[in-house]
Amino acid sequence: MNSTDTTLGTADGGTDRRRWFALAIVMTAAFMDLVDVTIVNIAIPSIRQESGASFSQIQWITAGYALAFAAGLITGGRLGDIHGRKRIFLVGIGGFTVASALCGLAVNPEMLVASRFLQGAMAALMVPQVLSIVHATFPAHERGKVFGLFGAVVGLGAVSGPLLGALLTEWNLFGWEWRSIFLINLPVGVAGLILGSRFITESKAPRALKLDLVGVALVTLGLLMLLYPLIRGREMDWPVWGYVSMAGSLVVLAVLVAYERRKAARDGSPLVELSLFKVKSFAAGIAVQTVFGIALGVFFLVWTLYMQVGLGWRPMKAGLTGVPFSIAVSAAAGMSVQMLVPRFGRKVLQAGALVMAAGVLLYIWESGHYGLAITPWQMALPLVVMGVGMGLIVAPLTDAILSEVPREHAGSASGLINTVQQMGNALGLALVSVVFFGTISDHLRPEQIGPAFVDSFQNALGWVAAVMGAIFLLMFALPKRPAQHVEGEQVPVEAKEPALVS
Q1: Who's near 401: CB < 8 A, 6+ residues apart?
Q2: How many Cα neighbours within 13 Å face the side chain of 90?
Q3: pTM for the complete prediction?
Q4: Which end of the chain is less enclosed by CB atoms within 10 A, N or C?
Q5: Which strand (E) or helix (H) includes residue 286?
Q6: Helix ranges restricted to H, 184-239
Q7: Spatial separation of the C-alpha atoms in residues 207 and 408, rounded to whole Å
Q8: Residue 247 and residue 163: Cα distance in Å, rounded?
Q9: How far apart, in Å, do the first and last CA atoms of the chain sit?
């Protein structure tokens, strides 16, 4: 390894305690990103009421972030490999903080949507460095523990987002109403910037790389051509140009693959490291991550609308309802990596898909059985079952995908993981127009709103259950056991067969 790839974890055998401070800082950034997504969901009705945003603009407030995030993640990961993961992380967290301030100061829905695009773009610089820094800093035998912590942070972010959103919206601090959900990022971002500059050790790819600008243009164009018409399709009555654009996106992505293959052969600096897909664990995990993102994108938005618009619940009541789900995700995520995957391997992830599907089906039954009279206590059981299922998937899946990735491609791999998850999320948000709003009449009397939203919620959850079934089948393509856990032992990444990733 070149000295440029020396980190706290690799330079001294992983004994430097400062790497745990670095971990806490990058995990805080990941937490901030996760909170920002969930906190916006719970505040959507308040944003719509106070700003006068249409349902289409509400979709853009959520999907615009995901779209910019997905389009920039691969580039963000590669920039970290080239210019240093610490440097790009600090640029990202600083820009994310500024974008959060602009969101909080937005004077109309259009400015809020634009600021959310900027926020997503800055998150695309920040978030890929989290997994890259972990991968480059911690030796293989510690990564299981670290990814378990990462799964717990995912659950904690899911808990904190709705609760913070509910509290800040209900309290209406300084008369800011929903704006405080964005402004709360400012002190966290500033602290992360100061502490990150002190405790994170720089790392980058072991050989000189150049940013593939043609690759950046192609991947951004391809994703925009696919996702933009999906998000706006229903609003514009599915115009012909939308179908042409989506078909054209496949052509652009095919051109990207051909170009990246030539780029790798010519100078070894492609934006997308196609050799990663030769590793079965990576290729299969990427497919699962994409489809999983679709399910989550659909569920979280329609769940918020169901509780606050359909059932008429206040933000605090809706936020507290999600606590059992989030606690279950956090607990199951930590337990799955530490205890279950080393013993049962792939079966843990497949069990998670089936358990989550069972929770969704139970939720559909309860929603139909209790109707508008359903209570948070009655929702607790299906939410706990769903949370356990999600927790069994989210942490070990990341571990499995990255298990055989060489350090020099950590940024590219992390960018791809986050890209496909966000692309799936954006696809899910776009599909909300079809599976949720598509079943609601545009002209409802006030007394019809509740029953219509309940029916649409059940329809959307039916699609989520079907997607979880597809994920279960896709998981058969995953290795029976992640490489680190073969026969209960943890194998260093450097010991992998190099031909797999050459």
Answers
A1: 281, 282, 285, 286, 289, 413, 417
A2: 15
A3: 0.72
A4: C
A5: helix 280-305
A6: 185-199, 213-232
A7: 8
A8: 41
A9: 16
